[in-house]
Design goal:
about 30% helix; Glyoxylate/hydroxypyruvate reductase B; about 325 residues; 2 domains
Length: about 325
Amino acid sequence: MAVLNIVVLNPLADRHKEMIKAAEPNVNIIVSDQQNALEHMPVCHILATWGWAETRDLYQAAPHLEWIHSLSAGVEKLIFPEIQAADTVLTNSKGIHGIAVSEHVLAMILAFSRGLTLSIRQQDAKLWKRVPTIELHEHTLAIIGLGSIGREIAKKAKALGMNVLASKQELTTELFVDKLYPSDPESLLEMLAQADFVTVALPLTESTQNLIGLTQFKAMKPSAYFFNIARGAIVNEADLITALEQKLIAGAGLDVFSQEPLPESSPLWGMPNVIITPHVAALSPAYLDRAVKLFADNLIRFIQGREMINIVDKTKGY
């Protein structure tokens, strides 16, 4: 077998290169950044990049490219007409994010339920004053999108005694979900009306863009909190700002936005009932270890002609 050239658009530690070489010694690993990636494309057979990175020009310059792997779960910038019309395999890193993202969601939920958002502001002002709190026990969490991340969120919520609702395209038996709803608009509104906390855990596709807007926020309880750790474009941000200003919902925890970095002019920055984090929910010291392990497992399958893990349907976008 000829040597396979693998271009990785992210720094790799020696242990990561060793993991790939252990899966297949007959590879040449080229680590590059986005700026210099184009020069490696004429010899590239396999490209490992991020789903949000601009890749179309690289693809067009890579005549030998057979497989693109996304180091993220999202593949929004890896879906374009040329790849949709070709046999190029596209895979993602779905399944490795659940632990970190679910902990991030739980942290934001607890920050609101225990009044930490207010307490931190009062600490800055040296103000000794009790803040309202609630227990999560027997309160209801709704998860929009029950994939690997959604299941991890559900598991942690059940451990805290919460009632868990979730929406999913295919209705299945789920260990940590009390009630599962189909993904149609009417069922979504029914689920939202019951929730004290709502989190989005969907991929960004044409069908999920602007899925959550004023209609959905109006369906929620005025006491409910909304969280987005998926993709900013799934939520109509102007409608979210309106919902917060008009107190249609109690607050929001947001890790993703329609424009990133979030512009300084956004009203979200100054809202006391909003937690903002800079797209870090999935970050973990273990992230790249897990991503490279999955890639190495798939590399073996690719070379052996076996069915690969996490093949993306290029027509659906996930």
